[in-house]
Every structure is written in C-alpha cells, then in structure tokens.
User: Fold this.
Amino acid sequence: MSASTDSQRMEKIVSLCKRRGFIFQSSEVYGGLNGAWDYGPLGVELKRNLKNYWWRVMVHERDDVVGMDGAILTHPEVLKASGHVEGFSDPMIDCRTCKAHLRADQLVEKKGVKQCPNCGGKDFTEARQFNLMFETHVGAAADESSVAYLRPETAQSIFVQFKNILEVSRKKLPFGIAQIGKAFRNEINPRNFTFRSREFEQMELEYFCRPEQGMELLEYWKEERLKFYDNIGISRTNLHVLTVPDAERAFYSKGTYDIEYDFPFGRQELEGVAYRTDYDLSQHQKASGKSLEYFDEETKERIIPHVVEPSAGVDRTVLAMICEAYAEDQAPNDKGQMESRIVLRLHPRMAPIKCAIFPLLKNKEPLVAKAKEIVALLRPDMTVFYDEGGAIGRRYRRQDEIGTPFGVTVDFETLGERDPALRDTVTLRDRDSMKQERVAIQDLPAILRERIR
Ligand code: GAP
Assistant:
C-alpha cells in the first residue's frame, strides 16, 4: 500500500455520494449500521451498469463461460470442506486503554513499539483468531444441527455446482462459470467508506482448465481484467499489479495477482486473480464423496480440473470509478463568467443518466413539448432526465456533478423561428469538453447509442 493519501478529496467524494444520492449509510436514521451501505437512485444505476457490463464481457460475449446465481445461505459442510470454518479468520486484539477491537495488522509501530492507531495506547490483549463468517440458524431449532452461514464468497457455490453445470452446459475444458452476488464478512474494522464492508457484492469467474494450462491462463485473465478496467474508465496509471509473494499466498495457490487501485486513502486491492489449482474441487469431492471429475472424451482421461479465478468487488469498483471520475474545474456560467464546477467524468457506458434534456425556457409551451418528445424518443435506449428548472448553466452544473455525459437543449432554433434550416435540430453538449454541436433530433438516438455502448 502506498503511503500517499488525500483525506480531503475522500471527504468531498463521500459528501457528494450522500448529497446526490449515490450511497447512504445503512439504517442512518437509527445511527447507522457499521459496515453496511445503501445505494440511492444514482448509485443503484451505476452499480447495475457495472454488473451488466461485467456480465456482458465475461459471459455474453464469450462461448466458453456460462452463468449461475447461487444461494446466500450455505450448508456448513461446504464451508468446512473449503477451509472457511477452520481458517477464515483474522487475528484480533483489544486495546486495553480505549477498548478498541483491532486487527493485529492495524497496530502502528513507532520507534519499534506497537501502538493503538486510535489512542496511542500500548497495552493490548493477546491476539485471538476471530472467524469472519456470519453464522445463522435455519428453521425453528437454534442449535448445532441448524447452523448455516451467509456465504463469505460467491465462489463456493460454483465449485459445489460444478458437476451439474458441466452436465447441462456440455462445455469442454477450458470453460468458466460466472456469478455476481452478495457476500458477507464480519470484518473487525469496516473502514474507508464502502471499501471494507461487512455486506458487499462480488463478481467472480471460476475458469476450469487442465493443470498444464493454469499458469498461462493466470496471465491471460490478469490481462483481460486490466482491459476491463480500462473499458470502464479507470486509467491504467492508477492501477497496479502486485504479484502476491509465495509466503502470503494461500498454500494451494500456484500464483496470485492483486490488481490494486490508487484510492485517495492509499493503494488498495480491487481484484484478485488467483490460480487455485484443483484445491476446491478436490476438497469438495473428498468431503461429499461425490465425483467432481471431468471425463475427457478425446484422451479418455478422468481429471479434477484446475481453476483460475478473477474475483472482483462490485462496491470497490464502484468506489474506484467515483474516485477516478471526481474532478473540480472551471466552467462558464450563464453570463459567460468562469466559475468552479464539480464534475464526475464517469465513462459514458457507466454513467447513471446518459442524457439530460432541457427546454431553454419552461414557460414556452412549444419548447417544453419538443423536449418531452425527445425524452420519449431516447427513453427506450437509455436513461434520460428531463429538467426545466433554473438557468441553463445551473442545470448543466447539476448534471455535471452526477456524471451525465450528454445534455440536449431545445431552443428557439429548434422551432425553426430564426432559420428554417435549423428546425428540429438541438444542441448536444459534451460534459467533459463542454463543446456543443448542433444535431438533428432524428439522429440523436443513433449518435448517443454509439457513444454509450
Ligand atoms: N473467491 C476469492 C475471494 O473472495 P478475496 O480477495 O477475499 O477473494 C475478492 O475477495 C474481492 O472481493 C476483493 O478483491 C474485493 O474487491 C472484494 N472484497 C473482499 N472483501 C471485501 C469487503 N470486506 N468489502 C468490500 N469488498 C470486499
């Protein structure tokens, strides 16, 4: 993790997220539930755009990947076999001075002495292992026999359904199974806004292959995932690939990359790309007693496939997109004077609202009617927002702040009052360059579809 942080920038981002309805603290009116977040009207659109695009490139645009949607409630035997019941824990200590519960690796070291990051205290309890899984009970009996867990990753349901999906999809190695869904971890210290939450979403692909293909596919998926971030507007200069050192990798992994992003609070993991060998399928085969082997028709061999797993966090990627997009610059107001503006330079394919439509004046019925016609024209293809309130510059500013990439203004030229050649044309404004072009209304759907794809 890099030491450079920008807490002021982060505060502005958190404030914008709340002010404009991207992300709220969960249960806020009751004081908030730590580690849980609710996405507002714009946040939910941004999140959906991300998940839909991931699904499009990872499943729909490929012949070798199918999807699934598994249950969150998980049988304890699944998580015993995967090693989560025994080993999915963080070492935890308490500060005896301020009573804070801390992960052991959060202590700060000053002059060789470990200190509490909250109060500077130096008196701690012994480290104890704290399992991060949320346990619950299924059915009426609340005893050992009814224990189930909220899944700590989506991956395990993919491994457990491997055989069923292989049979119904009739795929040949190498092929993948993809899933997007909620995961839950009782993190000791949720922090950095949504970055470390207790309830979050993952986008995971388990890509099954022959053992000899594993290392090559690890490289392949790392590169594919880096391309993905480029395609959602996260610049390569802010991404870093960390080769996880042997000592820090899971014992069964033959190679792991962390794709990290330069958040305002430091360089942190966005996604892991791991070669997990045949560990998971072997464990489930052993524990369930059911064969999870793959029969190769050509070689007449039975093997347990190996797996390469790109595993990304939805919430972390949403946060990275917002951090990447947040900018402050200068824009002219209605009198042509420059003033400061906040702009979210979200990639158009990710932006919650694609196009805002403004009649120049709200009390001019023909302008309003034309603007509403354009809303109806564009709505089948994209999210649009109609706004007739306030000076046009202020309306642009409101859309800039939420990342709307295009603005259409219906003016007197549109009505053909000054120049009949301009009848049924509008100005199309670009959020980033603030340049305006005059386009025919009938061309708008095709022009915009191309730019937001
Ligand atoms: N199946 C592999 C797996 O779950 P992980 O590195 O523990 O690996 C994968 O998690 C991704 O899930 C992370 O890179 C991160 O984006 C996201 N993630 C993990 N824990 C998270 C948390 N507490 N809050 C938000 N996102 C989290």
Remarks:
- DSSP finds twelve helices and 26 strands in the chain.
- The pocket of glycyl-adenosine-5'-phosphate is lined by residues 153, 155, 185, 187, 196-197, 200, 202, 204, 269-272, 309, 311-313, 315-316 (CB under 6 Å).
- The mean pLDDT is 95.
- The radius of gyration is 26 Å.
